[in-house]
Write a structure and sequence with these properties.
The chain is mainly alpha-helical. The protein has one domain. Helix 2 (61-122) runs antiparallel to helix 3. The chain contains 3 helices and no strands. The radius of gyration is 28 Å and the shape is elongated.
Length: 181
């Protein structure tokens, strides 16, 4: 399959580059999620302290109830914002990993096609049908993968828009309830 040591080295280099890109993407997403979690934890701690101070400053139970009612809306909005941010980070990482995977698959397809073409040149007479069958199988597999990838992208886009719509509805509900309180 591999004609020379240089081709083997090139193949290994390509694989190492892909692994490095994959690892870098995962590491960057993990780093962003960690930063998001630290910021959310810091905000939660500060918000809890502020809420405790507000509740302790209440002069009577009705005042405490009114203060407690006003504390729910910002918390729900912060949760919705956190969810959007976390989803955005995960979605961006997923898209980048898909690009890496698709590029590797395209390169593999190209190299396999080259290999079949090279094999066809040195194949014995009468093997044209077998070579044609290999090429046809490769084309069918590539077409099937493209269809699956397209369907997965559409499902992902649908899920993303549904999540965005659900977050918008929840945020609007919290805002509406906060205004009534």
């Amino acid at each position: 399959m591999i004609a020379s040591p240089n081709q083997l080295l090139e193949l290994q280099k390509t694989q190492i580059d892909a692994i490095q890109a994959f690892g870098s993407t995962v590491f960057q997403a993990t780093e962003k999620l960690a930063q998001l979690n630290v910021a959310a934890s810091r905000d939660l701690l500060q918000g809890s302290a502020d809420a405790a101070h507000s509740l302790l400053s209440a002069k009577d139970p009705q005042d405490a109830t009114a203060i407690a009612g006003t504390l729910a809306q910002p918390s729900a909005e912060k949760l919705a914002s956190y969810s959007r941010s976390a989803y955005s980070i995960a979605s961006a990482a997923s898209a980048e990993l898909s690009k890496i995977f698709e590029a590797q698959l395209a390169e593999g397809h190209r190299k396999l096609t080259e290999l079949i073409d090279t094999a066809a040149k040195s194949a014995p007479a009468g093997s044209e049908q077998a070579i044609g069958l290999l090429k046809n199988s490769l084309t069918v597999a590539s077409t099937a993968f493209d269809a699956i990838t397209k369907a997965a992208r559409q499902a992902s886009e649908t899920a993303e828009s549904n999540i965005a719509a659900a977050v918008a509805v929840a945020t609007d509900a919290v805002k509406t309830k906060g205004k009534k309180a």
